[in-house]
Amino acid sequence: MRVLCFLVLGYPDLDGHWKSLQSEEAFETVRTRLCSIVTSTITIASVLLAMSGVFVTTGSPVSYFDYTSPAPHCLLFISLLLAMLAMLTSALSMMRWLHTDRYWTQEKLKPGGYFMISYLLSIVIPLFFVALSLHCFMFAMLMAGLSSQSMICLVITTFLYMLSILLERTMWKYPTSLNHASRYRP
Phi first, then psi: what are they for 11, rounded to 5°? Predict the structure, then answer.
């Protein structure tokens, strides 16, 4: 539950978010921020959908980078489906956040339980689908690049793979450093 709160709201628990529900201005700020996250998710899912769709429906223009072999093609198709799911769940989440008001949210969050989890998952699920779609796309391109007969393609693929690992580790260190910083606040 703490992880969901941190991913969605930026707080380790619902106490900070509960404070934002006490005034209309603070609630509008939170709702605007969450709608912005969902809008960005829709944009990223749209780009992934277009890229995966192009790679699934067209053949490789060059012989040394064959992404139409069975394993990369299957991963590209899975990426396409996950991007569609991300767009669908993002659209549903956007409708939910645009039509909610502060009093209704306060009333539903008091008892906790199902609504609280669905409240948090309405942002996390689309992000999860986008991340899975992106990883399937990257693994498909990685497989196609590493199975290439061209040395230049192999070197570029290996370099980009190492760069993505470095960026992913950097992204995972950021929330950890925030967690350590919150312990030392007065």
Answer: -110, 150
Distance CA 163, CA 135 (A): 14
Q: What predicted TM-score, i.e. pTM, was given to this entire model?
A: 0.78
HSE toward the beta carbon, residue 142, CA cutoff 13 A: 15
pLDDT in tens, 164-185: 888 888 877 766 665 555 554 4
Contact in structure between 130 and 44 (CB atoms under 8 Å): yes
Residue 109: both structure tokens together: 């969050």
Helix (H) or strand (E) holding 44: helix 24-57
Confidence of residue 75 (pLDDT cuts 50, 70, 90): very high
If pLDDT is split at 50, 70 and 90, which confidence band does 136 have? very high
Residue with tokens 């809008």: 39
Q: Which residues are CB-neighbours of 8 under 8 A, at least 6 positions away?
A: 34, 120, 123, 124
| 101 residue type, one letter | D
> Could you give the CA distance from residue 169 to residue 46 in angstroms, rounded to a whole number?
26
Q: What are the tens digits of pLDDT across the range 16-29?
A: 666 767 778 878 88
**CA gap 12, 2 in Å, rounded:** 5
